[in-house]
Amino acid sequence: MSNLPSQPLRVADLSTNKPTRFELIPDEASLRAIADELGLLGLRKLRFKGEVAASGKRDWVLKAQLGATVTQPCVVTLAPVTTRLEEPTERRFVADLPEQDGDAGSEDGVEMHEDDSLETLGSHIDPAAVMIEALSLALPLYPRADGAEMAETNFTEPGKAAMTDEDTKPFAGLAALRDQLGQKGED
Questions:
Q1: Most buried of 15, 111, 114, 180, CB within 10 angstroms?
Q2: 3-class DSSP state for residue 71?
Q3: What is the pTM of this model?
């Protein structure tokens, strides 16, 4: 996200006695850049307001409220779907990230901490980066336009009966077995 205007807060300049407040309201060019980065059809009314405060001797907590109106394509029809998002956000920047219990590392070499609000404290805290990450996580995974439904489509080999959605239900096989047993009992 290097093309977006950012004003990282230098940790050494932050007051340990009172919170440092911030409010981010990106301009139109930044909104377009964020929308492009996240694959959105549109983004408006993005606002990220909060504060960074000391937590203990060396750690910091960022608490903020994210507000945005996003437009995404419907997963069924590709029609634009507009959603209003209001999400509280919290990140804890810690000088010494606690060790993870269990395996020393995962297969890909990247350890994921159980608490997803924890971040390693660096020399700066970037509210803009936290805003974009929070927006990305708050987006609906499968936006649907009103009334959009998946049509049932059946595929099978010629001459065979196609499997329907009803056939995939857990007890559909048991119902067929019951029907077969009922026919044998009648014979």
A1: 111
A2: strand
A3: 0.70
